[in-house]
Amino acid sequence: KQYRSVVESVKEVFFQIDATGHWIFLNSAWTTFTGFTVEESLGKNCLKFIDLDDHERYQQLWQSLVNGEKDSFKHEIRYVTKTGKCRWGEVNIHSSLIIDGVVTGFSGMLQDTTELRKSQALEKEKIKLEADIQERERRSEIIRKSLEQEKELSELKSRVISTISHEFRTPMMMIQSSTELLAKYSEKLSYDKKLKHFQQIGWAVEHMNQLLTNVIFLDKTESGELNCHPEYLNLDKLCQKIINNLQVTLTSDYKIDFSSQSNSSQVNLDEQLVGQILTNILSNAVKYSPQGGIIKFDVFCQPEEAILTIRDSGIGIPAKEKQRVFESFYRATNVGAIKGTGLGLAIAKKCVELHRGKINVDSEVGVGTKFQVVLPYLD
User: Fold this and answer.
1) CB half-sphere exposure, 113, CA atoms < 13 A
2) Which of the four pLDDT bands, split at 50, 70 and 90, describes residue 193?
3) Could you give the CA distance from residue 23 to residue 21 in angstroms, rounded to a whole number?
4) d(CA 36, CA 48)
5) pLDDT (tens digit, 9 = 90+) per residue, 37-91?
6) Where do the domains of the chain lie?
């Protein structure tokens, strides 16, 4: 009576089965679990209450008990309720009645795991949904980046076509007009006028050649064809050579004020890359500075790196466009009628990166721009 009182008060199903698999004891929790009363279940084979899909597995486990291969087993099995629905139950069964060494009965406990199963299934579904959402977000991000890249490529393509067509149109028209004049009036034109037209043709060809050279150079830097080859050089002399080359093309209204604050007679740098960097930045400084402007160019060599600073008092760069000026073919919105291709700073940045250096820009519209290039000495 005391045992029955205890087992009748719990929510787990307590049972006993004889050696043939028939119920010989069930507590009232069985009715809660299956809907079948204890009276209509006792004496029946427990297999009749188990879902058909679990029959084979249950019988294997049952035979291992009956044959003495095991003295207990624990397994989840689906039971069929009185209404025909399935409920999951965790069966924990062991041999309990042994007469003359022969197993004649089994005792056990059956715990309803249906809600736990549902909870686990919901958790799995939740995890799956979260994974699906993350995957969709990842794919959306890939698509977004792809669309951004496509948009950037489209914008770049438009800038390339616009720049090249614009930059080629003027020199080609100059070549055309000069050749037509030379062809029609060669005998009437004086030597000086002929020379002027030939010089215009030469300038136009050089201008187009320079544009193509820049495009090819930029392509080489982006495709990995161009490498850094550092050698010991005199940085002061290289800077002065670049300044002298530039001043040949400048009017007397511009001045490049050069100063070196340290000994730079032997530094390990790539002369070609440094030349491209300085030529492009200095050319831009001159191009966007007012008549009579002074461009300050300072070199400071530290033990492990060279710091090159170029300042101008030009038109400046809008704050939102400071980083975009390093994009190929990009030109700031305030350049107005000043000619240019938008390649100079892109090439300069690529050269700095090849040299494992850094380039920074600080600018204010109407005040001027400062570029600082830091180049490490390389072995």
Assistant:
1) 16
2) confident
3) 7
4) 12
5) 999 999 999 999 999 999 999 999 999 888 888 889 999 999 999 999 999 999 9
6) 2-112, 119-223, 231-376
Residues paired with 109 in a beta bridge: 14, 92
CB atoms within 10 A of CB 325: 22
Residue 359 CB contacts under 8 Å (≥ 6 apart), including other chains: 277, 326, 348, 349, 352, 371, 372, 373, 374
The answer for 307, left when phi > 0, alpha when psi is -120 to 50, beta otherwise, is beta
In the chain, what are the helix, strand and coil shares in percent, each to the nearest 5?
A: 50, 25, 25
Is CATH 1.20.120.530 what the domain over 2-112 is classified as, yes or no? no
Ordered alpha helix ranges (H), 188-268: 191-223, 235-249
**Which of these, 296, 210, 212, lies nearest to 255 by C-alpha position?**
296
- Could you read off the pLDDT of 275-328 as tens digits, one per residue? 999 999 998 999 898 888 899 999 999 889 999 999 999 999 999 998 889 988
Torsion angle of alpha carbons 259, 263, 264, 267, nearest 10°? -150
pTM value is: 0.55
What class does CATH assign to 119-223?
mainly alpha
- Number of helical (H) and strand (E) elements in the chain, helices listed first: 9, 12
Cα–Cα distance between 137 and 129 in angstroms, integer?
12
Integer Rg of the chain from CA: 44
Encoding tokens for residue 323? 């980083």
- The length of the chain is 379
Work out the angle at residue 102's Cα, subtended by the Cα atoms of residues 97 and 103, and round it to the nearest 5 degrees.
40
Cβ atoms within 10 A of the Cβ of 328, count?
21
Q: 231-376 has which CATH code?
A: 3.30.565.10
Contacts of 133 (CB under 8 A, 6+ apart): none
Residue with tokens 């008549």: 291
Q: What is the mean pLDDT of the chain?
A: 87
